[in-house]
Amino acid sequence: MIELSDVHVTFNPGTPLETKALRGVNLNVPEGQFLTVIGSNGAGKSTCLNLIAGLCRPASGTVAVAGDDISDWPIYRRSKFLSRVFQDPKMGTCEDLTILENFALAQGRTRPRGFRMAVTRTIKDEAAERLKVLGLGLENRLHDKVGLLSGGQRQAVSLLMATTGDTKVLLLDEHTAALDPKTAGFVLELTQSIVAELKLTVVMVTHSMAQALHVGDRTVMFHRGRIVTDIDGPKRAAMHVNDLLALFKQEQHEELSDDALLLG
Ligand SMILES: Nc1ncnc2c1ncn2[C@@H]1O[C@H](COP(=O)(O)OP(=O)(O)OP(=O)(O)O)[C@@H](O)[C@H]1O
Hints:
Layout: E1 2-11, E2 19-29, E3 34-39, H1 45-53, E4 60-65, E5 68-69, H2 75-78, E6 82-85, H3 99-108, H4 121-134, H5 151-162, E7 169-173, H6 181-198, E8 201-205, H7 209-214, E9 218-223, E10 226-232, H8 233-237, H9 241-252
Parallel strand pairs: 3-8, 3-9, 6-7, 7-8
Antiparallel strand pairs: 1-2, 1-4, 4-5, 9-10
Helix pairs in contact: 5-6
The structure holds adenosine-5'-triphosphate (ATP).
């Protein structure tokens, strides 16, 4: 479904600030797979998501989705099948618009020439139906401004909005990191149930090694712009957080500082 072939991304090339953020990344994420991505600070995780989302372009190599080389596609063209949820709950929603208006906006996401924000009865019914599943009573607050919601409520709404329409690929950029543990657990469970229901292909960046191992089907670890570990199946199922940490140290021949990765 998602295929990165020998991708290199370099920021500020040819200047003293040159940074090789991705250095020959090969990654094939099959349709329906839930991939978790972990790595130390500056390893290239966000750059990888940016590359798939179209926020940066490869210096060389290709990015393909469903067999199409999308390396040069503009963001709006990708948004027809791809969406993203960020760490900051404020990033996924417009606080000055109501919950319903935000849903209408999400529906318009797939249209290339600007968005239409017409709130039709269908959108209202769909929004209410999907919000009801959250069990937060938000289906009765369709006309409340999103700015009134808590961070967790807002992130749950962001997730619903990101998975409206024809979304096939979901990119999660540490989307539970800014939430308290209980709310993070709720949003993560919601994520897993939506992904299973809609059979989405997912790339989730996390700093939590436990989350990386226990959520999804496969885990890759980035270090200095390269994928250094790629585990799935029984090997991954039998692995504990400490094993993953040991594997990282073995791959890198170096010690990790405690703040580079969260062990919990
Ligand atoms: N827009 C940019 N301009 C210049 N350098 C950048 C830019 N974006 C990222 N970088 C650099 O590229 C490297 C990879 O950054 P990236 O954000 O992908 O890492 P990360 O693994 O997501 O790290 P973190 O966990 O700290 O968010 C880093 O050295 C970073 O400073």
